[in-house]
Amino acid sequence: MNCIHPTPDEPGFATAEMLYIDPEACVDCGACVTACPVGAIVPHTRLTPEQLPFVALNAAFYPVREGKVPPTSKLAPVPDAPRIDPRPGGPLTVAIVGSGPAAMYAADELLTQRGVRVNVFERLPIPYGLVRAGVAPDHQSTKRVTRLFDRIADRRGFTFYLNVEVGSDITHDELLAHHHAVLYAVGAPNDRRLEIDGMGMAGTGTATEIVAWYNGHPEFARLPVDLGHERVVIIGNGNVALDVARILTTDPDALARTDISDHALAALRGSKVTEVVIAARRGPADSAFTLPELIGLTATCDVVLDAADHERVARDLAEATDPLTRNKLEILSRLGDASAPATRPRIRLAYQLTPRRVLGERRAEGVEFAVTGSADEVVRLDAGLVLTSIGYRGRPVRDLPFDDAGGVVPNDGGRVIDPSTGAPVRGSYVAGWIKRGPTGFIGTNKSCAAQTVHNLVADYNDGLLLDPARDRAKPAALDRLVRSRQPDVVDAAGWKAIDAAEIARGGGQRPRRKFTHAADMLAAAADAPAPPLHERVLAGLRR
Ligand code: NAP
After folding, report:
1. Which keywords, in A-to-Z order, does the entry hold (predicted)?
2. Contact 206 CB / ligand 1 (< 6 Å)
3. pLDDT, tens digit, for every residue of 512-536?
4. Which of 37, 169, 394, 534 has minimal Cβ neighbours within 10 Å of its Cβ?
């Protein structure tokens, strides 16, 4: 049933903070509960006390209709799968660069058509991008989407080339010579930097680095994270700031049941942090975090406001008309007071603070803020760790144009565009954060990738994509080239071996104990059993 809104083609989808189930159109079939790849839907009878606010939020989204059948109760229109016109130079072969949600959804969409071949290239020996390295370890249900990705990777026509860096191990032109198209879904791996005095000193860093560190990203395993002080200040109040503050204040024994990296767990066990301040430059009504994440935070952590911010919340609440903002403000208005004694590490949300400089000579000792909107009022907060959390940023992709202001590759519906001529760059496509900027949740990438794939397939059908030369069209030719450049390439069997080894290391107590060094991942991949003889023969015949 078409009972979950807004849908990707309805207004408001791009900025939606959550989706809502229409209680009149829903027939209680439960299909969405089992299908939701991130476990975000549960029957209302199974909501935990902390989740109960979602019942009222969901109901408030739909107007009262006095028994009339809502217009949304029609069967959902099934979006057209991209239909590929077969042609002699086929099958369509696409290289996808990156293996996060946008990449995997693009592969899924392409593989709806028989005969299509998709080769997914990933710089790290392990796949799935921010689902593995970005989603917080205490959000295991969100990470469940990797099961869907594993099923996509198992489909006929899908090949993993992990531990292969496009741009150094293999170039864009080489990929294009072996495929009809190259689709970049490389995300936005840099952070936006805050240019104030003192950033860069010891004791300063970015929230996104901490996220990569606690999630066991191999390039951040040795990040120096000093938790030997009482207060951490995070600048910016988006969902990433909430994630980091939650992890820094959660009981390590609870985190020990997750897949948090061993080095982060050890550091958190020794942590002296008693307060994390999340400092926003604007007021409560402009909080960047989303409502579901705020509800989740207040359900699990002690979150407080000081008296001045309680007053700001009350003022904003008196003026706010938008229901989403009002809901956030109502939750904020019920938070405890910062003057009350703390019984465990807590989070303080602070407002109207524009960062001016990090205090300290050799290492961070605090932050100085100007009170936003006031001519001369200054607030200084002591802190041993100062983190900026002001958003991710796309990085230029070698051989593609780049829009520096937006931090994205210029594109029209996923077709890469040459900004000097406005013409599409043949065979080059983008999806996900490198296409639209770092916003939205995992599911947003599904419709984003589908749009790119539809345009790619239309270009293929219109004869705009060149067939690879005969000697390069066979998978074995690409395989040889990749292995000549990167002998340690990890394939699907290698990933399965890493996955199984990590789960076994968890010992049934944890979902997995992650490898955090590439060498350990490669050693586990090398233990992958050779495929059975009949599969090798079949693979040879297909080639
Ligand atoms: P974000 O939501 O864009 O928040 C950025 C924050 O930085 C805002 O508070 C912004 O304030 C502030 N900021 C920007 N420039 C600043 C400056 N010069 N000085 C001080 N503050 C500054 O970014 P994010 O938290 O990195 O999240 C990125 C995306 O990932 C978002 O779409 C988020 O929802 C998503 N995400 C989702 C989840 C989840 O669903 N669980 C988890 C993590 C991330 P202003 O508003 O004043 O500009």
Report:
1. FAD, Flavoprotein, Iron, Iron-sulfur, Metal-binding, NADP, Oxidoreductase
2. no
3. 999 999 999 999 999 887 776 666 6
4. 534
Q: Which atom of ligand 1 is nearest to the CA of 142?
A: 41
Residue 449 and residue 430: Cα distance in Å, rounded? 8
CA distances from 210 to 4, 133, 206, 438 (A): 35, 10, 7, 18
Find out whether the beta carbon of 390 lies less than 6 Å from any atom of ligand 1. yes
pLDDT of residue 63: 75
The DSSP bridge partners found for residue 367 are 358, 381
Cα 301 to middle of ligand 1, angstroms: 20
Distance between first and last Cα of the chain: 42
Flag whether 239 is marked binding: yes
The three-point CA angle 450-455-460 to 5° equals 120
Question: For the segment 255-290, what is each residue's pLDDT rounded down to a tens digit?
Answer: 999 999 999 999 999 999 999 999 999 999 999 999
Strand, coil or helix: what is 350?
strand
Does residue 355's CB lie within 6 angstroms of at least one atom of ligand 1? yes
Any known ligand binding at 166? yes
The structural domains of the chain, ordered by start, are 4-61 (3.30.70.20), 92-189+394-489 (3.40.50.720), 204-213+223-391 (3.50.50.60)
Q: What is the dihedral of CA 59, 60, 61, 64, to 10 degrees?
A: 80
Q: For residue 540, what pLDDT band results from cuts at 50, 70 and 90? A: low
Q: Which atom of ligand 1 is nearest to the CA of 290?
A: 34
Look up residue 58 and give its two tokens: 């969901």
Q: How many CA atoms lie within 13 A of 214 on its CB side?
A: 29
pTM, rounded to two decimals: 0.91
The reply to whether 115 sits in an annotated binding site is no
Is residue 166 packed enough to be buried (19+ CB in 10 Å), middle (13-18) or exposed (0-12)? Answer: buried
